[in-house]
Write a structure and sequence with these properties.
Number of strands of chain A: 0
Strand content of chain A: under 5%
Helix content of chain A: over 70%
Distance between the termini of chain A: 51 Å
Order of helices and strands of chain A: HHHHHHHHHH
Structural class of chain A: mainly alpha
CATH architecture of the largest domain in chain A: Orthogonal Bundle
Number of domains of chain A: 2
CATH superfamily of the largest domain in chain A: Tetracycline Repressor, domain 2
Number of helices of chain A: 10
Oligomer: homodimer
Radius of gyration of chain A: 19 Å
CATH class of the largest domain in chain A: Mainly Alpha
Chain lengths: 194, 194
DNA sequence: CCAAGAACATACAAACTAGTATGTATTTAA
DNA sequence: TTAAATACATACTAGTTTGTATGTTCTTGG
C-alpha cells in the first residue's frame, strides 16, 4: 500500500469513529509515521481528503454491495434478501458499534457541505436504482404482487437498512441489528405473489 | 425564558445543525448577547451542557411523542399509525434537512462517550417499551395476528422511523421521508388480523 | 548523466476554542 | 441591614488544529 493509500485508509478508519469534524489528520499522520509534507503533497486540505475518501472508499464499497441486484438469476426477492443476509454476515459487534460509515457521514455533513451532500446522495441514489432494477424485473416477470410502488419500496428498503444500523448502534447490539434486518427480510418476502 | 433556558435552547439548535463536536458554545453565547461567565455559571463544561440538552430537551420530546401509545382507545395499530402520521405532520422541509436530532447525536457520540450513549439508548428503550405495551395489548385482545414477535416489531418500527429520517436527510427531501413512513405504515397495518 | 519534477520532511504561523481567574452587581436570607 | 450567595461580565491562557513556506532526497525521462 503506497503512502497515498495509507493516508486515505487510516483517515477513513479514524473518521468512522470520530466523524469528519472530529477527525484529526495530523494525529493520523503521526500514527502512520509520516509528516504533514506527505499529506499536503497528496491532498490540498482536509475537505479534499474527505471527498477522496467518499469517492475512492465509501462509494465503491456501498455500490459494490448492491451490484448483484443488477442481474440476478434466482429471482429479485431472493437477490434482495441475499444482500440483506450479506449485510448481517459481514457486520460484527465492532462494526455495529461504529455504525454505517455512509450514514454517519450523511448525518454529520449533509447539512454543512454541499459537495459531501451531493456525493453521498449519489451513493444512495445508485443503491435505489439497483433496487428499482431488481424490483421492476420482479414485477414484469410476475414474481411480485401487482400494484407495488417500485420506487417507494426501494426507498423503504434502504431506509430499513439504515434504520437497522442506527438502532444497532444506539443499542450497541448486533442482535438488535440482526432482528431488525430480519423483520425487513420478512417485509420483502411479503412482496412476492402467494 | 431565563438565561439558563436560553443557553440550553440556542445550543440545542446549533447542535442540531453542527453536531456536538461541531458545536461552538462561545459562538452561541455571543449570539445570545451574553458572556462566558454566564455559561460556566450554569454548566461546568461543554459535555455537561450536552448532557443537560439530552435530559431536558431531547428525552422529554421523544418520549412525549410516543406517550399516547400507553393507553389508546382506538386499537393499538391505530395508535401506532397515529404516531407515524404525527411525525409526518410535524416535520417540514427544514427539519428533514437537519434530520432527527436524537439519531444525529447517537450516530456522532455513542462510540465516543459512554454517558451520551447510555442516555440516548435509554430514550430509544423508552420508545420501544411504549411500542411493546401497545403491541402486546393488540395481541392480547385479538386485534393482531398471532405469532407476532412483539419486541422485534417494536425495534423494527423505530428502525423504520430512524431510517426514514436518515433517507430524507440524505435526499434532502421531505417527500422521500413521507413515502418511506407510508411504507412503514403499510407494514404496521399488515400486523392486523384480516 | 543531469535536469526537473515527484515525494516527502521540518519548522513555523495563524486562528480558534475550551476553560480559568477574577471582578462586580444584584438578590436573598438572617 | 448586612453578609453571603447568586448571576453574570471581562480578560486572559494554554492547548489545538489546519495550513504554509521551505528544504531535501529520490526518481525518472531525455
Amino acid at each position: 500500500m503506497n503512502t497515498r493509500e495509507q493516508i486515505l485508509s487510516k483517515n477513513y478508519e479514524a473518521m468512522c469513529l470520530h466523524g469528519f469534524q472530529g477527525l484529526r489528520t495530523d494525529k493520523v499522520i503521526n500514527e502512520l509515521g509520516i509528516t504533514k509534507g506527505a499529506f499536503y503533497h497528496y491532498f490540498s486540505g482536509k475537505k479534499e481528503l474527505g471527498y477522496a475518501i467518499v469517492d475512492e472508499i465509501i462509494a465503491p464499497h456501498y455500490i459494490g454491495t448492491f451490484a448483484p441486484l443488477k442481474n440476478s438469476k434466482n429471482g429479485s426477492i431472493e437477490a434482495i434478501t441475499s444482500v440483506l443476509e450479506y449485510l448481517k454476515g459481514c457486520s460484527s459487534r465492532e462494526t455495529i458499534h461504529i455504525g454505517c460509515p455512509l450514514n454517519n457521514l450523511v448525518q454529520e455533513m449533509s447539512p454543512l457541505d454541499d459537495t459531501f451532500r451531493d456525493k453521498l446522495r449519489g451513493i444512495f441514489e445508485a443503491q435505489k436504482d439497483l433496487l428499482v432494477i431488481a424490483l421492476s424485473r420482479g414485477v414484469e416477470n410476475g414474481e411480485l404482487k401487482e400494484g407495488i410502488m417500485v420506487e417507494d419500496v426501494a426507498f423503504y428498503i434502504i431506509s430499513g437498512i439504515e434504520g437497522s444500523y442506527a438502532l444497532g448502534k444506539a443499542f450497541q447490539s448486533k442482535k438488535v441489528f440482526d432482528r431488525s434486518i430480519d423483520q425487513l427480510i420478512g417485509y420483502v418476502r411479503l412482496l412476492k405473489k402467494d
